[in-house]
Amino acid sequence: MGDDEKSVPIRADADIVIARQEGRALAAQLGFSSSAQIFIATAISEAARNIIQYAGSGEIVLDHIADGDHSGIVIIARDQGPGIKDVQRALEDGYSSSGGLGLGLPGIKRLMSEMHVKSTPGKGTTVIMKKWLD
Amino acid sequence: MQVPILKQGDYLIATIQSALTDADLLQLRDELAARVGQHRSLGVVVDVTVLDVIDSFSVRTLRAVVHMLKLRGAETVIAGIQPEVAFAMVQLGVTLESEATALDLEEGLIYLDQKTKGSSRHGRR
């Protein structure tokens, strides 16, 4: 994690707006196009919404990443909620454990370059999303 | 952040001015349902031009707005979704397919004129 690391606590619906605005600001600073900034902000909004909906509270961590010639943004959505029983299924379109739209994780994945989900039932969920600069 | 709702003839125009929290969006929904009755409005334009994020909750709430106002006898059109926001909505997988949409406020008002033709009580159009 670099010097740009920033954590946004997610406790209420207003924090979703703060998290996506911070994410968009960092993406702009890192040189992402306006379109990519909007993708990143939308992904953050959905991830933060999942935290509120399933865990009640958690955090969104935003940071700059570099890997060889590549650089980009990483967003970590972390909570200590009930966790996801079947992560593979949660990544399929149309699946939702709370009767929502069922688009959460697959939708986020399509907005970003990479997404990884780690979840332990009873312990919580961490979603790591990355978007690389072209 | 409250959304100002202007009355223009038989229509209401709700112009979103900044990013909205979930609570703000729900308040807009309730406010519109009440105002449509107060003003006996035939149509509503919800202008979302300034929104840079339209996520699953926003879409669900906008759909609820359209449906509720329809039940109250008013046509609703969502105007001003920006091209990049539309692209993000497609990637996210959210849709506004059975809801009326328009390029901007002007097109939204033209749509309402067509939809409510002949039903104006004031005979001004």
Summarize this structure briefly.
The complex is a heterodimer of chains A (134) and B (125). Chain A is an alpha+beta fold and 134 residues long.
Please give the structural blueprint.
The complex is a heterodimer of chains A (134) and B (125).
Chain A: E1 6-10, H1 13-29, H2 34-55, E2 58-67, E3 70-79, H3 87-90, H4 104-111, E4 114-120, E5 124-132
Antiparallel strand pairs in A: 1-2, 2-3, 3-5, 4-5
Helix pairs in contact in A: 1-2, 2-4
Chain B: E1 5-8, E2 11-15, H1 22-38, E3 43-47, H2 56-71, E4 75-79, H3 83-92, E5 100-102, H4 105-115
Parallel strand pairs in B: 2-3, 3-4, 4-5
Antiparallel strand pairs in B: 1-2
Mean pLDDT figure of chain A:
90
| CATH secondary-structure class of chain A | Alpha Beta
What does the largest sheet of chain A look like? 5 strands, antiparallel
Topology order of chain A in helix (H) and strand (E) letters: EHHEEHHEE
| Highest CATH level, the class of chain B | Alpha Beta
| Strand elements of chain A, count | 5
Distance between the termini of chain B: 33 Å
How helix-rich are the residues of chain B, as a percent range? 40-55%
Structure description:
The complex is a heterodimer of chains A (about 130) and B (about 120). Chain A has helices spanning about 15-30, 35-55, 85-90, 105-110; strands at about 5-10, 60-65, 70-80, 115-120, 125-130. Chain A is of the alpha+beta class. Chain A has a single domain (about 5-130), classed as Histidine kinase-like ATPase, C-terminal domain (Heat Shock Protein 90), CATH 3.30.565.10. In chain A, strands 1-2-3-5-4 form a five-stranded antiparallel beta sheet, covered by helices on one side. In chain A, helix 1 packs antiparallel against helix 2. Residues about 95-100 of chain A have low confidence and may be disordered. Chain B is of the alpha/beta class. Chain B has helices at about 20-40, 55-70, 85-90, 105-115, and strands at about 5-10, 10-15, 45, 75-80, 100. Chain B has a five-stranded mixed beta sheet, sandwiched between helices. In chain B, strand 1 (about 5-10) and strand 2 (about 10-15) form a beta hairpin. In chain B, helix 1 runs parallel beside helix 2. The radius of gyration of chain B is 14 Å and the shape is globular. The chains are: A alpha+beta (about 130), B alpha/beta (about 120).
